[in-house]
Design a protein that fits this description.
Number of helices: 1
Shape: elongated
Helix content: under 10%
Number of strands: 59
């Protein structure tokens, strides 16, 4: 018989998959465990019991399989003193303000009863919302409805409206994006150049009933569709005179000593003798602008791209010119387009801010397109003349359609699609402009409907398969982005995540943590240290199920379905090791818990005299929805924490060692003594043996276990709402 001491000096890699049970040769094996539940991996590699969940708000919503009654959480942060949680529910918004004393208060509620047009939110697609906030304004997007704008009007009031684009001063131009949705070669033939009730005939099927209310751009003019008669005929009101800016610069050519001017006008569609109006032409061939501009008659039709007209004066030279010319006409044309965002074409799926522009990404009809507003003007998407500050429109022409789901403003504009990861580069610290903007594809993994977030210098996202988490990171050496997996060691913990949030310097640590809510209602906590090549995962469970999460700076919040499937808003906070806990005064030896707990519920209670806390055990709520503490009269207790304790558990990997002939994996072996390095430990179990201290214990605890197994493990467990930190352990292996 041989006795060997096997150290586990840290748990810096958290919980690892059972598939790695034979990798006893790796440093990871000796710095991880087969189960880590409700612990946080500390910077130095120790495990500290997680914070409890403080109850904040009862939504009065009950889970049902047919109608889950979900809530999507978003953050609204104006500054350090004005921070809010926005709960987006089925046809309802709730706004919670985070107060300076740490408390949270519901300050405003908007429902469909009062603002039905502004609240399209539907629980069916509630996890697919994207949002971006700047100052007092938040934008919320989904491809099935027009973007919504949430505006904070005071500390406690919010308005909700439908996004609307800026218009020109005369209201005759809407500064919105347009796109040529028609098939190649399809022309639009308006019946007149101005007024209402214009007939709009297309050369092939195009119109559908949903086009009513949308805007068509004919050249540089806009037509509001008022009726659809057939697939090839619609009726519209012409907002301004119909005009084209000729695509050819200097399209005029004069003939010496004549008044005939030849015009290059691509696909003009004119007939001889047709009246047109010329605008903004400049002098050419000695003919002044005033003798070119105005109403003119089309002369000879040379070909489909060329015709002539007669000027009001003769030229004195054969010359090309005319400048940037406009033609007022209602001739059939290929130069027409349709507003990009509508009920017919869909609405943006994603939104963010980047380089002082509002950025929209992906619609049902243009899933791989990106639109960027003018700089500093978030409601103006006019492409103008492609000046540096003008709006930008671009498409990810990467060989396949990339359905944009999320965009993140980071070093570059990072774009996450259903089929891969892209980015819009920024060159040499130059701003993105219409002339240098482009989309580059980098990696091929695709993104789940979970908002990516930055952590430890990288952007973390959930792969499309729902079982892998990757970090999107630019590397100078490769001059490209990579998307390395960070969940490989703990892939069993990634179970179709529904939401993710990153808490910075949370849990009283300088590190950042990502909290994932999985489709099965479990939580997963992730932290990384790239310098140490460490990625650690732990599981987080509660008495009910997690239903969503949001972080604001160093505060982490979660929606939780309790044991009765009622939806509750909670915060991970404090050293109170209970979930759904409430803090109540003790009045005449009685604690009123009616705000959350019902008759016959079993709860845990921690009481305080204002200085120290004492765990008094479990209690059953009486018929008055109170807890009687008469038995503790005279202790000077003033307040009580009442909630549900949760289990914190560590199960080591099978204790193994290299015995000279190789590892003893699979061989029968035993564990004798175990020395556990503890901090602030009160009550806990080791392999089902209970250890209790009157005060928090810090130091090394030697425990005799004995027992033989082919996979001997050490299990450390705590069920009471008391503190516990495990720094490491040494197991005496008997072989």
């Amino acid at each position: 018989m041989q006795k060997v001491r096997v150290p586990i000096s840290s748990f810096q890699f958290g919980e690892i998959s059972d598939s790695l049970v034979t990798r006893t040769d790796t440093p990871i094996y000796s710095a991880s465990a087969s189960r880590v539940e409700n612990f946080v991996v500390m910077s130095e590699g120790s495990l500290k019991k997680r914070h409890g969940l403080k109850h904040i708000y009862d939504y009065s919503l009950t889970y049902a399989s047919a109608t889950p009654n979900k809530s999507f959480l978003a953050s609204f942060v104006f500054d350090d003193n004005e921070q809010y949680i926005v709960s987006i529910e089925h046809a309802k918004l709730r706004f919670f303000r985070l107060l300076d004393d740490g408390s949270i208060s519901l300050v405003d509620t908007v429902t469909a009863d009062t603002s039905s047009a502004a609240l399209p939110f539907n629980q069916i697609y509630i996890n697919q919302y994207t949002y971006a906030q700047y100052g007092d304004v938040m934008f919320i997007c989904h491809p099935l409805f027009a973007p919504r704008v949430i505006t904070r009007t005071s500390l406690t009031n919010f308005d909700v409206s439908t996004f609307s684009f800026d218009t020109r001063a005369d209201s005759k131009v809407i500064y919105q994006p347009y796109y040529n949705f028609q098939s190649q070669g399809v022309t639009l033939d308006p019946s007149k150049v101005s007024g209402t009730g214009a007939t709009l005939v297309t050369s092939s099927s195009y119109w559908v009933a949903g086009h009513v209310g949308t805007t068509i751009r004919y050249g540089e003019s806009e037509i509001l569709i008022t009726a659809v008669g057939s697939a090839t005929s619609a009726t519209g009101n012409i907002v301004d005179e119909l005009k084209h800016r000729l695509s050819v610069l200097n399209p005029f050519r004069t003939i010496d000593t004549t008044s005939t001017v030849e015009v290059t006008h691509l696909e003009h569609g004119f007939a001889g003798g047709e009246a047109i109006t010329i605008e903004e032409a400049s002098a050419v061939g000695g003919i002044n602008a005033s003798n070119l501009n105005g109403v003119r008659a089309v002369g000879d039709i040379i070909d489909k791209n060329t015709y002539t007209f007669t000027a009001a004066a003769n030229s004195n030279v054969a010359e090309d010119g005319g400048g940037n010319v406009k033609i007022v006409t209602h001739a059939p044309t290929l130069d027409w387009s349709e507003q990009a965002f509508s009920a017919v074409r869909g609405y943006p799926a994603s939104v963010c801010f980047h380089e002082n522009r509002l950025v929209f990404g992906g619609t049902l009809s243009q899933p791989d397109a990106i639109w960027m507003s003018k700089i500093g003007d978030f409601f103006n998407f006019d492409v103008g003349d492609a000046e540096a500050t003008d709006s930008i429109q671009m498409t990810a022409a990467t060989g396949q359609v990339n359905e944009i789901r999320y965009m993140i403003s980071n070093r570059d504009l990072q774009v996450f699609t259903a089929s891969g990861e892209l980015y819009v580069p920024t060159y040499l610290n130059q701003a993105i402009t219409p002339t240098n903007a482009q989309i580059r594809k980098q990696t091929p993994y695709g993104s789940q409907f979970v908002q990516p977030a930055s952590i430890d210098g990288a952007t973390v996202f959930v792969q499309h398969d729902g079982h892998t988490v990757r970090e999107y990171l630019y590397t100078d050496g490769e001059d490209a982005y990579t998307a390395s997996p960070v969940s490989t060691l703990s892939s069993h913990l990634i179970n179709d995540p529904q939401s993710m949030s990153v808490v910075h310097s949370g849990f009283e640590l300088p590190d950042s943590y990502a909290f994932f809510v999985s489709g099965n209602g479990e939580g997963t906590l992730f932290s990384s240290n790239r310098a140490e090549k460490r990625a650690s995962w732990t599981r987080v469970t509660t008495a009910g199920n997690f239903a969503g999460t949001i972080a604001i700076h160093n505060r982490l919040f979660a929606n939780v379905y309790d044991a009765y499937n009622k939806l509750q808003l909670c915060e991970f906070t404090g050293d109170v090791g209970m979930d759904l806990y409430i803090y109540k005064p003790i009045s005449t030896n009685v604690v009123d818990v009616s705000s959350l707990y019902n008759h016959n519920e079993v709860v845990d209670l921690i009481a305080t005299d204002g200085t120290t806390q004492s765990y008094l055990g479990t209690f059953t709520v009486d018929s008055d929805e109170e807890i009687d503490l008469t038995a503790y009269a005279g202790l000077g207790l003033t307040h009580a924490y009442v909630g549900k304790s949760f289990t914190a558990k560590i199960i080591t990997n099978p204790i193994d060692v290299n015995a000279g002939n190789g590892p003893v994996t699979g061989s029968v072996r035993g564990i004798g003594n175990v020395i556990i390095d503890l901090k602030d430990a009160r009550s806990f179990k080791v392999n089902n043996r209970t250890f209790t201290n009157d005060t928090n214990f810090t130091g090394k605890k030697e425990i005799r276990i004995l027992g033989h197994s082919r996979d001997p493990k050490v299990t450390i467990e705590q069920n009471d709402p008391l503190p516990l930190q495990v720094n490491g352990l040494i197991a005496e292996l008997i072989i």
